Amino acid sequence: MDSEKVIARDNNYVLHTYNRNPIVIEKGHGLHAYGPEGQNYLDFTSGIGVNSLGYCDLEWAEAVSRQAHKLQHTSNLYYTAPCSKLAKALCRRTGMSKVFFANSGAEANEGAIKAARKYSFDHYGEGRSTVITLVNSFHGRTLATLTATGQDGFHQYFGPFNEGFVYAPAGDIDRLTKLVDAHTCAVMLELVQGEGGVVALDPLFVQEVRALCDEKDLCLIVDEVQTGVGRTGTFLACEQYNLRPDIVTLAKGLGGGLPIGAVLVSDKVAAGMGPGSHGSTFGGNPVVCAGANVVMGRLDERFLAGVREHGAQLRAGLEKLPHVTDVSGLGLMLGVQFEDGIQASDVLAACRERGLLVLTAKTRLRLLPPLVVTAHDIERALVILDEVLCGMDPLRP
Ligand SMILES: *Cc1c(COP(=O)(O)O)cnc(C)c1O
Fold first, then answer.
1. Of 188, 223, 205, 225, nearest in space to 368 by CA
2. Tens digits of per-residue pLDDT, 57-105?
3. 140: Cβ below 6 Å to ligand 1?
4. Cβ–ligand 1 contact at 30 (below 6 Å)
5. Pfam families this protein is in (predicted)?
6. Which of 142, 191, 192, 195 has the most ligand 1 atoms within 8 A of CB, as the residue to mutate?
7. How does pLDDT run across 152-178, given as a tens digit for each residue?
């Protein structure tokens, strides 16, 4: 079916909650996405940080299809090997004690909030349930995670919103400390605010938050839905912040393209989450876990060193481009700020015309290439970006 028909049908029948790019992607291989008429795109979005191994990695696709032929689903009333294998790999890799599997980032964050509140309830009783999150954060689209998201734009139309969330500006430990009272149970943050504009938190601020959480016995929830699973050059971004969280959430890149979320908890938090406390029909699905196990197996130290190396190469190249005033982020999660008068959305559209797919976040261009990106792919993307930016004049938009 040709692109025009696919787009017309989608526009007729799919609820218009997305501003989609006017292109259809039919298949993919590695860094490349292909359209029905043979269009070839170099993809620096990886499905918003999801396709960690690129499109249709052979080992991943074979593991997924082998598992689909063997057992596609049971339920959480029974044990399956792919699920326990993934749980063990995640705990060993992160030093966390136990995992709960969900199906998305928002769902993982819901689980994290529940686990933090349960810990607080068990130790301090009712009424200690408020979660402090950061201004400009993004934690998901369910009602609780929308409320946790520290952006006013998300707190409209769908009310009443949940109680129990308050917001502190990132980097301001005094304001955050002032929000702590007898009702506070947790602090929740992203180490690099992704949707909020690819803003990395100040390491000193993060250490101050950890110390505050220790002092008041608050759970520190780190939302690594976007930063986790190698994206920033270490398995967790926490490692680069020398941070020991009480709860970490993962999702996007973990399944290599299949829907999964994970809530990783420390011993003290795990203790409260007994039978009946939480659940999911699909969570821990064997096909999804088979895919995630391939991702986990691939992300050894050598692989992660490659992510850091390619992240540094991409950052250095971006910094040299015309009209670029700042490059933010960590590893292969980068944001590019342009001079006034150049809109990231215009750069995105011009890149797409030249066969390069990129993202935006707030005023920035955002790059989230698959973790298997090569030096050659990066050079190619930089050439296209250079051509696009050379053709732009901030004074004559
Ligand atoms: C994408 C994202 C989410 C939401 O994940 P979904 O899978 O879309 O529910 C939550 N937190 C962060 C930091 C994210 O980047």
1. 225
2. 999 999 999 999 999 999 999 999 999 999 999 999 999 999 999 999 9
3. yes
4. no
5. Aminotran_3
6. 195
7. 999 999 999 999 999 999 999 999 999
